[in-house]
């Protein structure tokens, strides 16, 4: 059996690989436009090799990374976080804390790169707008071990990307939002706290006015086209058991 060379030069790319790279690039073109750093032959080849050159599966996995909803008309990046739908008890068993920190920093840096490019084009200081959706909130979100990780992550991101957040909108707030916010507020910088807005029942109208209907997926009241109402936003849920750490099975 021939073992595929995973560390090849451009001259070593086979016609089959070149064809698959072109096919994946076309299939994921909309997503790659938002994340241009992924749009290289070697980057796409990594995804293809990782998923056995299955274009459908590879394109879905590539798109699943998305949390960025758009860049607004000014050039600010807009993130939608379906925070209340996460399942911390299973998520914390799916990988190391360092993995979460590393991926979060990389994702933030990629967004920062988009902003820097827009700033260069517009001559204006821009940033990130974050929409936190607390629909389906439950106390499970406040699972203490995971909450401590989140708070440390917030502290790290604020240290690495000071004043990057331009506005934070919190929607579908539960009745106990004041209690929840009191647990998070101590780690937020003064500048971050000043940018938080808790929206009421008119949150759709506010988002449409501030972000534009064409920049918002239909699930949140906009007209942004997508095959799914939520676009490529990560909508959370319980982590499959096959991806969770099982003590007896993970001992080397």
TrEMBL record:
Residues 56-228 form the CRAL-TRIO domain. InterPro entries: CRAL-TRIO_dom, CRAL-TRIO_dom_sf, CRAL/TRIO_N_dom_sf, SEC14/CRAL-TRIO_domain. It holds the Pfam family CRAL_TRIO. GO terms for cellular component: cytoplasm. This is CRAL/TRIO domain protein.
């Amino acid at each position: 059996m021939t073992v595929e060379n995973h560390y090849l030069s451009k001259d070593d790319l086979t016609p089959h690989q070149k064809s698959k790279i072109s096919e994946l690039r076309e299939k994921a073109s909309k997503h790659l436009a938002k994340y241009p750093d992924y749009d290289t032959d070697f980057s796409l080849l990594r995804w293809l090799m990782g998923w056995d050159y299955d274009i459908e599966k590879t394109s879905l996995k590539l798109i699943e990374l998305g949390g960025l909803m758009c860049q607004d008309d000014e050039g600010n990046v807009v993130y939608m976080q379906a925070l209340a739908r996460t399942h911390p008890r299973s998520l914390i068993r799916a990988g190391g804390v360092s993995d979460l920190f590393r991926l979060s920093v990389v994702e933030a840096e990629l967004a920062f790169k988009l902003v820097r490019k827009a700033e260069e084009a517009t001559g204006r200081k821009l940033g990130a707008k974050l929409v936190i959706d607390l629909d389906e909130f439950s106390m499970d979100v406040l699972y203490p071990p995971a909450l401590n990780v989140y708070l440390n992550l917030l502290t790290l991101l604020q240290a690495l990307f000071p004043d990057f957040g331009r506005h934070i909108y919190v929607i579908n707030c539960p009745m106990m939002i004041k209690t929840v916010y009191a647990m998070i507020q101590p780690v937020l910088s003064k500048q971050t706290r000043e940018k938080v807005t808790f929206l009421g029942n008119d949150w759709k109208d506010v988002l449409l006015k501030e972000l534009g209907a064409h920049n918002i997926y239909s699930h949140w009241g906009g007209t942004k086209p997508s095959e799914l109402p939520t676009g490529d936003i990560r909508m959370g849920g319980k982590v499959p058991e096959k991806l969770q750490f099982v003590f007896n099975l993970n001992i080397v």
